[in-house]
Each structure stands twice: as structure tokens, then as C-alpha cells.
Amino acid sequence: MAKVLITGGAGFIGSHTACLLLEWGHELVVLDSFANSSPEALRRVVELVGGDAARRLRVVEGDIRNPASLREVFAPAAQPAEGIDAVIHFAGLKAVGQSVRQPLHYWDVNVAGSRSLLAAMAAHGCRTLVFSSSATVYGYPEQVPIPETAPLQPINPYGHTKAAVERMLADLAASATGDGDSSPWRIAALRYFNPVGAHPSGRIGENPLGRPDNLFPYVCQVAVGRLAKLLIYGSDWPTTDGTGIRDYIHVMDLAEGHRAALEALSNAEPQVLTLNLGSGRGTSVLEVVGAFEAASGRRIPFELVGRRPGDAAISVADPSRAEQLLGWQTRLDLAAMCRDSWAWQRNNPSGYAGI
């Protein structure tokens, strides 16, 4: 089993991936600033896995931009044992709207932070990385479903930062020097579409701070009574019901995609994999509302309002390459996404803040 660093491991996708990797027997180090996450998520992960999970999980509170935090991860004075074998890099900011308002902050955290992490990896001889990228790199897609060969044309600062880190990774791998060392890199950039759902236990899930930007947590908070109604941005899109269509992927399927990518990198020659993680199925906003009402037994009041700048009508993945190279495909459908999202929200109406 590998020793894996997960940056941002207390976040939504990070905590679910940590849970899965612990179940598979890996040893984990989680580096998280807890700026947009809670230590409670990791406490619950240990509880869910049980056994010796607490012994196999070390948590470091810190920032990937801080050299001291990175030293504590890669060369801890108190535990000078074997080093990190691989990194799964989730740490970063992810709200599209916020990125438009605070572009410099996004470039600092997402791009400068990634550069600091890569430099630390090179310095400590760790050259296996799974990077959390995003379908936002495609912008307004020219074809649907979207293949990995589609042009990168992001339309907001968040998407630009993901594309910039992908470029940095490609340049690093092509240099074959690892910042002064000749060891090659093993890299997977996973462009995922719309992660939703929660752990089937209802113990860990998405915990946005403030008003949610994404559809599922927004719907959840309306269903549980924290928000009065859902605002649906655009009812005149060129789609079957006029609302936007997205490719939703259950977070447990997404976690499995990261595990599969890590395994593929470890068992193959050095390479750079760029893969879409999605279901290949499109679902409209109104279809999500109907499915969530069926799962929760609650009515979801909504209001149709104008389109948001930067939104696209349809974004659906072509995930065939991930199936071919990783043997991975989604298993959980929209009903499961809604069922698990509702179980999490019902059991934790205020998220981790309700402890």
C-alpha cells in the first residue's frame, strides 16, 4: 500500500476520496487549511472506516503556499520515516462567481499554490500526482459530449487557473528534469464535471460556506428550509425544457476515479494522463428538481430568473477514455445522487457547523 498525501483532504471530494483510500488500506497524510472545510469531516471519515484508520491518517493544518506546511508534510521532524509516494491535489478555490470577483486570490491559491506544491514534491523525490482539474477548462463546448481533445477555452478565472496548472504540469513532465532532477513524472489531470451526492451513510457530504453556488447544495438547503426558494438561472436555453443541462457525477464514483488513476499511474510507465470523469449523461435543472422532490418527499419552490454570465447551455462529458485506460465508469444514477444528498442534508441540516 502507498503513502499518499491528499491536499484539501477535508473538503467535499477530498474527504470522500480519503475514506475510500483508507478502506483500501493506504496510509494518508492530509494537508488542509480548513479555510473552506472542517476537521469534523476527517473525524467522521476515521469513524466510518474504523479499524486502524486513525493510525493510518495524519492530519496537518497548513497552506500549500506555506513552505513550513510543506516541510511538515514531506519531512516531518517528529516522524522522519519513509516519504510520500504520491499526491492527490484537491486544495484550491472552486467557486466560479467568486473567481470573477477575486481573480488575484484565485491565481494565488490555485496556481501559485500548485507551483509551491510541485516544487516541494520535486525536492523530496515524489513525482506521482493526481490533479483535480475541471470541465470548466472547455468553456463553451464546440461539441457535446466533450472529448479530452476539445480546445481549452475557459471563460472565467476559475477555469483559467485550472488550465494554467494543467499547462504547468505538461511543461514539468516534458522537461524530464523535475526542477533539476532527471526522474520522470507520473501525472493524471482529471477533468471532472459536476460532483454531487454524499457518502451513503449520510455522515460526510458537501458543506458549502455561505450561499451555495452549485445546484445540488442549493436544492438541499431549500429542501431543509435554510433557503426559501431555488433560483434557476435561465429558462430559455436551447434545451428540452429551457434550463441548463449538466453531467452530474456521484462523489463516490468520483472518489473511485481518483483511486483508479492513482493505481494506473503506479503500475505503468511515466506518463501524463488527461481524462474526463463524468457519466456521459446530461440532466437539466428541472429534471434535478423533480428527482430531488421524489427522493426527499419535499417540494422545492423555485423561481426562473435570467441567465448568469459565463454559463453554457449544455456540458456533458465523453468519459470513454477513462473507461478505456482506467477501467472506470460511473455506477450511481441520479436517484442515488439525490437520495444520498438528501440523507446528508437531513441528518446535518447545518452541515458540520451543527455539531
SSE topology sketch:
Elements: E1 3-7, H1 12-23, E2 27-32, H2 39-49, E3 57-61, H3 67-74, E4 86-89, H4 96-101, H5 103-123, E5 128-134, H6 157-175, E6 186-192, E7 194-196, H7 215-223, E8 230-233, E9 245-246, E10 248-250, H8 251-266, E11 272-277, E12 283-284, H9 285-296, E13 302-305, E14 314-315, H10 320-326, H11 334-347
Parallel strand pairs: 1-2, 1-4, 2-3, 4-5, 5-6, 6-11, 7-10, 8-13, 9-14
Antiparallel strand pairs: 9-12
Helix pairs in contact: 1-2, 1-8, 3-5, 5-6, 7-9, 7-11, 9-11
Can you tell me about this structure?
This protein is α/β, with parallel strands linked by helices. It folds into two domains: 3-196 and 249-277, 3-Layer(aba) Sandwich (Rossmann fold), CATH 3.40.50; 215-246 and 281-317 and 331-354, UDP-galactose 4-epimerase, domain 1 (Alpha-Beta Complex). Helices cover 38% and strands 17% of the residues. It has helices at residues 12-23, 39-49, 67-74, 96-101, 103-123, 157-175, 215-223, 251-266, 285-296, 320-326, 334-347; strands at residues 3-7, 27-32, 57-61, 86-89, 128-134, 186-192, 194-196, 230-233, 245-246, 248-250, 272-277, 283-284, 302-305, 314-315. Helix 5 (103-123) packs parallel to helix 6 (157-175) and helix 7 packs parallel to helix 9. The radius of gyration is 20 Å and the shape is globular. The chain starts with a strand and ends in an 8-residue tail after the last helix.
